[in-house]
Write a structure and sequence with these properties.
Layout lengths: L1 E6 L6 H14 L4 E5 L13 H7 L4 E5 L4 E5 L5 H7 L5 E5 L8 E5 L14 E6 L2 H6 L4 E3 L4 H14 L2
Parallel strand pairs: 1-5, 1-6, 2-5, 6-7, 7-8
Antiparallel strand pairs: 3-4
Helix pairs in contact: 1-5
Length: 164
């Protein structure tokens, strides 16, 4: 599977961009997974529901499954490699976060956010931005923040090249 790290600071628009990118990749027939790293503790289950109650009672892992979806909650952190090993078979994995991970990076930058880049562009395979000056100086391919289709085509091409 191809794995890409989307590196950006909070408030840059990573989630919004990935929401635009995923349908394009799916439209090419790719199976897509997303891993999100949260620097803060998060609540993925609803307090008072059975799965939450089981975790509160001390279960190390709780699984919930229905006819339409399944979720597994671990009561400890997993490395990105451990998470990847637990994924179903997919073609491409997009990560939001894990910016220090060993996989190809795509920097996302929104000029109005006023943040610096979260990754060194010389180590990135692409930059997604609305900042013309930054784009002009970038040593990697640059893609528009408002249109995910061009980056989807690049990722598809990389996927296909990796299969030959």
């Amino acid at each position: 599977m191809d794995i890409y790290i989307f590196a950006a600071f909070s408030g840059t628009g990573k989630t919004t961009y990935l929401e635009k990118l995923i349908p394009h990749l799916k439209g090419y027939g790719l199976r897509v997974a997303v891993l999100k790293h949260d620097a803060h503790d998060f609540a993925a289950d609803t307090p008072g529901k059975d799965s939450w109650r089981f975790a509160q009672a001390g279960a190390d892992a709780v699984a919930v499954s229905s006819d339409r979806r399944t979720a597994m909650f671990y009561q400890h952190s997993l490395s990105v490699e451990e998470l990847l090993s637990r994924l179903p078979e997919v073609d491409i994995v997009l990560t939001e976060g894990y910016k220090h991970g060993p996989f190809p990076k795509i920097a996302v930058h929104r000029k109005e956010a006023g943040e610096a880049l979260a990754a060194d562009l010389s180590a990135c395979i692409a930059l997604v931005t609305d900042d013309g000056a930054l784009a002009a100086a970038a040593p990697c391919p640059v893609f528009p923040l408002e249109d995910a289709e061009p980056l989807a085509r690049l990722l598809l091409r990389r996927y296909e090249e990796g299969r030959t």
